[in-house]
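Follow-up to my earlier ticket, as requested here are the two runs.
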Amino acid sequence: MPTVSSTTRPQRWQDKLKPGVLLRAALARRGSMQAHLGPEWHTNLHAIHETREMTAILLTDAAALQIMVAAKAARRLGGVMAEAGVFMGGSARLICEVKADSQLHLFDVFETQQRAVDASGSELRAHFGTVHGHLASVERLLSPYAGVHFHPGFFPESTIGLPDHAYSFVHLDMDLVSSTNAALDYFLPRMLTGGILIGDDYYDPGVRQCFAEHCGHGGYTLMELPWGQAMVVKHSPL
């Protein structure tokens, strides 16, 4: 007769007093959580904290880790990766840490929003003001990594002349509804079967509606993540 493993025994009252349990309970009541990461995740967490010391990352640790996990999973598909909305390069560096030999294409207005005179430039300036990433700084940050390509300018104009790549992983951090809509229009039809797209700003009702309209007709699984992101997995072929 098989014996019951000690790992499946009922929780004793003493277990509830182990270090961290009371903190987790208190955080849960406040709408937050604490999770223990096994040793296999320490490298990723170190990369997140190291990147925070080098540049700005406007993501929680959980959201940053989600990007790394998804990009690492998608790299087996082949194809290329992309990020639209690079800012100061923090999340792009995290993708570089796990992308292996995959090519990474980065799309951002960088300094061009300050020189734009059309309607799209006005919308960006109204939202971001004078806050933007500098292309030269991001290039320096990512210089240790091979296969990184920069496409400065307004999206989707910045894709003009780009080969019709098949994408395994895409990260969107566009802030604006119009920009998010344009990015979904461009990337979703070009994603590989099994490809993963992570979108930030999902707490915004307009961004949420964009994802619903693009992914609600089949061919995609759309998942809402608890930390303000959406994850899309593509099922239908190119």
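Run two:
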Amino acid sequence: MDKIAVISDIHGNIPALEAVLDHIEKQDIQKVFCLGDLVGKGPESKESINRIRSACQKTVKGNWDDFIIKETEFETLKWHQAQLDQEDEAYLANLPFSIDFIMSGKSIRLFHASPFSIYTRVQPWDSVEKRVSMFENTAMTGFENKIPDIVGYGDVHQAFVQHFFGKTLFNSGSVGNPLDLPQASYAVLEGIFDAETPEPFSIQLVRVPYNIEQSITIARQMDMPDLEPYIKELKTSRYRGLKEDV
């Protein structure tokens, strides 16, 4: 059986990424695919790019990977932009939108947020119609590709597996900024890679503890802006945009 690790949303959190890559290395996993958002929110965007380029066979573009290389008036984003050089920016600019492959007779598609855009967000509690739309072919994924049986994505920082009418939607969660449990998250796909005929197949969601205090110390030493909301998210897995009474 072949194994593919699916990681996403590292957001410059190197202690979390190191913990996940170390765990992956111990699991006899042959390939690592990344679903974007390598940069921003956390302090070490450049190092995150370097580690992903080394560790991952395929990587797609996330929304942070896109807007971090564009002009901005926001001082926080300018701080994150300053961590990158021209080579980093060129790498992010040329990342593909999606990945399609066959495993154990199932057509699998991976992207960052949705088949419509890296900015179109789909939550696990959205309507069935909206979640089922994740299996559509679009101009971004290519209309010529086979409609996928399985779709995996990142973006919402919450790991889950859901089934709809014979199809499976999963989210790998976030490595560096999880918003469901305060542990790094990734997914493992296990089956026969490139096999057109039905074979055993599974999706596993993995949680990896990491040194959150080390991540906070790095951000503090680098004088990263918006530090307190970042600390709160890492420690509580509570999104900074939620109202306190929710």
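The only thing I checked on run two: The radius of gyration is 17 Å. Let me know what else you need.
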